[in-house]
Amino acid sequence: MDERRRLAKEIELAATPEQVWQTIATPEGMSVWFVPHEHAGEEIEADFGGGNSQAGQVLEREPGRRVVYGAPGPDGEPPMTLEFLVEGKEGGTTVLRLVQSGFFGGDDWEAEYDGFGKGWDVFLNNLAEYFRHFPGLPVANVVATGFTERPGEAVWADLIARLGADPVLGERVRLTPEGLEPIEGVVDLRGESLLGIRTEHGLYRFMADDLHHMVSTTQYFYGVEVDRESRSAAWQSWLDRITGH
């Protein structure tokens, strides 16, 4: 039988509670560190790239302190919810807590749970980097996602080869993806099937997920004009060459 499980994350941010609240309680704010969010009628739609989107709504809201998102299922109850809690600390920092609750069924629920945890670590790191290096600037997002039956290790090795470098954390690097502008910056995230670059104007994240046979890039450009549609299409085409589509 499925059981309700909770995944909790916490991060201390160099920002005021008011600033943090804006990044978790509005579509524009969520776009700053997560994926592009937009109003879709009464709902909020998140764009994960490659034609993949997910819609939800605000289920509970305590302005300045707490907000809960979810999408009601067939029985009226949301199968999964996201709760954000904001708490100011002495010295001007703020603690943000995230609690994901939902049903994880099947034999691979532990892998699913672990995958969500790693994903939230990346996105919360994005939020910390935003407040550290780009506070207050608006964002333009570029996202692309591809799916493949190729082994995850092969997909990741192909991606790294096509970027033209396999850097380590803290290294200054120049990536040269074919057909796209070079990426110059500092490696601020590095892990198994994970690479993050901070540039002068934003963040690039590359990830592969073997469990879901997926590879993706999420990119954030702060305070600069970006043609989101053409860039997203170009990066989608680049990923499609890796996935074989």
TrEMBL record:
<feature type="domain" description="Activator of Hsp90 ATPase homologue 1/2-like C-terminal">
    <location>
        <begin position="15"/>
        <end position="131"/>
    </location>
</feature>
<dbReference type="InterPro" id="IPR013538">
    <property type="entry name" value="ASHA1/2-like_C"/>
</dbReference>
<protein>
    <submittedName>
        <fullName>Uncharacterized conserved protein YndB, AHSA1/START domain</fullName>
    </submittedName>
</protein>
<dbReference type="Pfam" id="PF08327">
    <property type="entry name" value="AHSA1"/>
</dbReference>
<dbReference type="InterPro" id="IPR023393">
    <property type="entry name" value="START-like_dom_sf"/>
</dbReference>
<comment type="similarity">
    <text>Belongs to the AHA1 family.</text>
</comment>
